[in-house]
Amino acid sequence: MPDFAFKLKTTDGAARRGVVSTAWGEVETPVFMPVGTAATVKGMMPESVRATGASIILANTYHLMLRPGAERVGRLGGVRRLMGWDGPLLTDSGGFQVMSLGPLRKLDEDGVTFKSHLDGSQHRLTPERSTEIQHLLDATITMAFDECTPFPATEAMAAESMRLSMRWAKRSRAAFVPRKGYGQFGIVQGSVYRDLRAESVAALEDIDFEGYAIGGLAVGEGQQAMFETLDFTTPMMRPDKPRYLMGVGKPSDLVGGVARGVDMFDCVLPTRSGRTGQGFTRRGPVNIKNARHAEDMRPLDEACACPACSRFSRAYLHHLFKADEVQGLMLLTWHNLHYYQDLMAAMRAAIEQGRFAAFEAEFHATQSLGDIEPV
Amino acid sequence: MPDFAFKLKTTDGAARRGVVSTAWGEVETPVFMPVGTAATVKGMMPESVRATGASIILANTYHLMLRPGAERVGRLGGVRRLMGWDGPLLTDSGGFQVMSLGPLRKLDEDGVTFKSHLDGSQHRLTPERSTEIQHLLDATITMAFDECTPFPATEAMAAESMRLSMRWAKRSRAAFVPRKGYGQFGIVQGSVYRDLRAESVAALEDIDFEGYAIGGLAVGEGQQAMFETLDFTTPMMRPDKPRYLMGVGKPSDLVGGVARGVDMFDCVLPTRSGRTGQGFTRRGPVNIKNARHAEDMRPLDEACACPACSRFSRAYLHHLFKADEVQGLMLLTWHNLHYYQDLMAAMRAAIEQGRFAAFEAEFHATQSLGDIEPV
User: How many angstroms separate the CA of residue A370 from the nearest CA in chain B?
Assistant: First the structure.
């Protein structure tokens, strides 16, 4: 079994082309990780997720600790075995979702007490318990337990929140049980403040993780502020470790993130949008429920080789969504994940070939074309 | 392109082993046809439906005429092309579902006027329009437009209803456009009354269809009354044409139907049950939501080769249903259709080998075992 490792193969400007080696397979970076919240990527069989080009997926500690329960998942052999996913798995720490509960949660120095959104039962997460749960889930990559600083936050608030997260990061690291081919990532906080991000990067590198995530972005600050924060944050980070931008994002976020030296991404957008009828294409997003698709026999995206595009028409996808048929969300989820993986593969190729800037320009030019004209 | 034809290969008692030849492929009988109501077998890709062993599927005229509309489906190339199903397709006439609308429909000698359950808009079906719609849907097998006689019905009511259906059958036949490899079936009515069934069989054979269905059963009369009706009805029917028992049924209904000389079946039970957590197994039905499956790593049915049974555990299926995850209904629908097709294949083999009676006895013995003991 290989050690957990990151190899930086080549760079093109700030963009990086690498590979993460894990106990359960290699991950070519930059990479997009589909979200399998409750140990299933909604509407997809695991082999279909793999067929889109995905090499690693994400699952959510918060949802799984509530249902079916962390100890139960542990007895069932972990998330990977339970759901039949044969690649590496990253789990979040539960922190982000618990923070989203608002008045249902109470934070103190030691951790967070919260009520389940399912049945109102009381639960507690600490750095130690979050790390233990992720062990029970058999996460290949465990995330440190942190507070996702809300946006907007004053510098003082952001500093206080970040420093708590750094103390929790140290406790998370102490609770982590090293296993060959497994790793743990620390999470850089500090909102949009350069000095705080610098302090956070230094604190985490002092602890020493297998990788580093950038947290507290994609929480309402907008793409420009996110990019500006990345512009000063990634250059502070060690080049020899993977960098993971959490919860991001739209296709243009991914391209901009890679341009700024990010290696890993995750987001519910392709799967969630797929369930509501939004398809991502090379010419921008398309709402398949729009009446103009009703008799359009062309594929959603002519350049896409996914089942939705290669075997079905816009007219059929439109019908499935209008009739609220499960196959509609199955197909559009598949397409969106396939599109995201195609985009990542194209970026990896562009970096290898030293033409990332040209790729980025072409991406924006094509996306701004808008959808094909109605028949 | 072959003619539409039925070849009776062999018999074993009343059970029949045959093959229906159509423009879009052959159908080995006895056969079970999965229901794809709105031009999709709910939760299944067409190639997955095929992978269960299905050779022909059914779609519903009533649903498709309302959404996306018969003329629209016609412009899109028919149901088979629209949904990507490369085998033969049977459509019902719309009659059964319109009758189910109760006060929303009004019947006269010429046809039925009814209100859409979707938007209350008014529509009309006659034998001519039903036949035209099925042509627009590009049904490989078109069904005659009939009134499904309610149960219970007095002999006088059943006679009146049946005779109306026979007049409509004649008009349906006149409206049918013969195409090579396509066929039209008449529907025997007459409730549970032997003389009426005999009269109906004779009336339909006088018209001369490519096949004959038995309608008005599985409408609340119970398995015993259904079997008794089949016991006197199928022997009256021509042996050289396929016999289709509409809307049936449970696994034991299929076995009893085949034992009584039925060649074709359709039912929403395997797909609908799959969506609500009921799995059919060799030892009888299982409710996967039951708490006793929560940590059971065994497959739903050890003898089943479907994806749900070969790659996932009862514990995982249980979790998916408790968490209301789409993959749960996808897997259990797939399993149930696979189980139904395995059952039909086993019956075809048993008839070929002249051991259908032994098969039937073993089927009932195994089904009555009940589910495997909890771990």
Answer: 25
Q: How many pairs of residues across A and B have Cβ atoms under 8 Å apart?
A: 98
Q: Count other C-beta atoms under 10 Å from residue B121's C-beta.
A: 9
Predicted confidence band at B292 (pLDDT cuts at 50, 70, 90)?
very high
Q: Residues in chain B whose beta carbon is closer than 8 A to a beta carbon of chain A? A: 38-40, 42-45, 63, 67-68, 72, 75-77, 82-84, 294-295, 297, 307, 311-313, 315-316, 319-320, 322-323, 325-327, 329-330
* Among candidates B84, B326, B327 on the partner chain, residue whose Cβ is nearest the Cβ of A311: B84
pLDDT of residue B75: 98
Query: Which residues in chain A are contacts of B59 at CB distance < 8 A?
Result: none
A16 strand-pairing partners: A11
Do B323 and A83 make contact, defined as CB atoms within 8 angstroms? no
For A213-233, what is the mean pLDDT? Answer: 97
Q: Note the pLDDT of residue B1.
A: 78
**Chain B positions in Cβ-Cβ contact with residue A82 (cut-off 8 Å):** 313, 315-316, 319
Of the candidates A92, A146, A301, A342, the residue annotated as catalytic is A92
Distance, in Å, from the CA atom of A251 to the CA atom of A105, rounded to the nearest integer, reads 33
Residue B103 in this model has a pLDDT that exceeds 90: no
Torsion angles phi and psi, residue A22, rounded to 5? -135, 175
Inter-residue contact B373 to B65 (CB < 8 Å): no
Q: How many CB atoms sit inside 10 A of residue A361's CB?
A: 11
Here the tokens at position A9 are 């193969």
Contact A168, A121 (CB under 8 A): no
Distance between CA atoms of residues B279 and B245, nearest Å: 23
The span from the CA of B129 to the CA of B233, in Å, is 29
Can you give the pLDDT at residue A124?
97
Residue tagged 């002092």 (tokens): A206
pLDDT digits (tens, 9 = 90+) for B210-253: 999 999 999 999 999 999 999 999 999 999 999 999 999 999 99
Look at residue B368 in the predicted model and tell me its pLDDT: 92
Residue A253 burial (CB count, 10 A): 22
pTM, two decimals, is: 0.97
- With CA atoms as reference, the chain B residue closest to A66 would be B323
B12 is catalytic: no
Q: Helices in A289-370 by DSSP H: which ranges?
A: 307-311, 314-322, 326-352, 356-367
Domains of chain A in sequence order:
31-267 (3.20.20.105), 276-367 (no CATH)
For A45, nearest residue in chain B (alpha carbons): B327
d(CA B366, CA B343): 13
**pLDDT bracket for residue A109 (50, 70, 90):** very high
Which one is catalytic: B12, B138, B263, B266? B266
ipTM of the complex model: 0.98
Query: Is pLDDT above 90 for A321?
Result: yes
